[in-house]
Design the sequence.
């Protein structure tokens, strides 16, 4: 499978717990993006990596959120002390290093905080 | 900052009829515009893009989009809708190293 993989597909957690999501981009793509999508809304930008460098973070990414991309390959998004408002679909996308052909999205991780 | 507007929440169309989903954009510089489709509990699938060139762009699954610079619009069209086209459609514009998405349009194709 040469697409973008996200794991897990679904996560249910209790409020206050920490969760971590993983994204494996297309291997030759050096750019990786995280978006959050809530019901009835379009995806909202969270953060962007070029190789292992995190180049930009949205104001949506509070101190409880952290993202990493060690070695410029897979990425993780961690949410600490989850709140009910964190319930959403978390989407990962990647794009190639040259030109611009749009993003390839993964299937997303749906987080439910109870 | 770049943005797109998708004015309609839902578009209903009878199977076999033409389908249009509207999008207007705002961006500094040349617009790079995209349409994506999303099925329930899935990620976004690329349909088509406008970077430069012809104003009529053809994409996947028989979809096309018309770029209109004077009206800052990029409407998605399909000549004959199928029931399987029922999904959520997002318009997006690229700027500042990221895609900015509209809120989406739910398309319902009625058999």
Sequence:
């Amino acid at each position: 499978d040469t697409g973008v993989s996200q794991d897990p597909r679904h996560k249910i957690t209790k409020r206050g717990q920490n969760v971590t999501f993983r994204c494996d981009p297309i291997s030759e793509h050096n750019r990786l993006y995280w978006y959050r999508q809530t019901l009835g809304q379009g995806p909202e930008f969270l953060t962007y990596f070029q190789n292992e460098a995190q180049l930009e973070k949205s104001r949506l990414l509070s101190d409880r959120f952290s993202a990493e991309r060690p070695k410029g390959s897979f990425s993780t998004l961690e949410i600490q002390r989850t709140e009910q408002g964190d319930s959403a679909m978390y989407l990962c996308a990647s794009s190639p290093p040259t030109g611009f052909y749009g993003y390839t999205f993964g299937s997303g991780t749906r987080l439910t905080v109870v | 900052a770049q943005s797109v507007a998708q004015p309609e929440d839902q578009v209903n169309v009878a199977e076999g009829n033409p389908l249009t989903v509207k999008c207007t954009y705002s961006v500094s510089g040349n617009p790079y515009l995209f349409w994506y489709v999303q099925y329930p509990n899935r990620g976004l699938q690329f349909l088509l893009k406008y970077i430069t060139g012809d104003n009529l762009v053809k994409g996947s699954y028989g979809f096309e989009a018309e770029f209109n610079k004077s009206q800052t619009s990029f409407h998605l069209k399909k000549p004959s809708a199928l029931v399987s086209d029922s999904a959520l459609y997002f318009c997006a514009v690229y700027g500042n190293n990221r895609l900015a998405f509209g809120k989406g349009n739910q398309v319902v194709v009625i058999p």
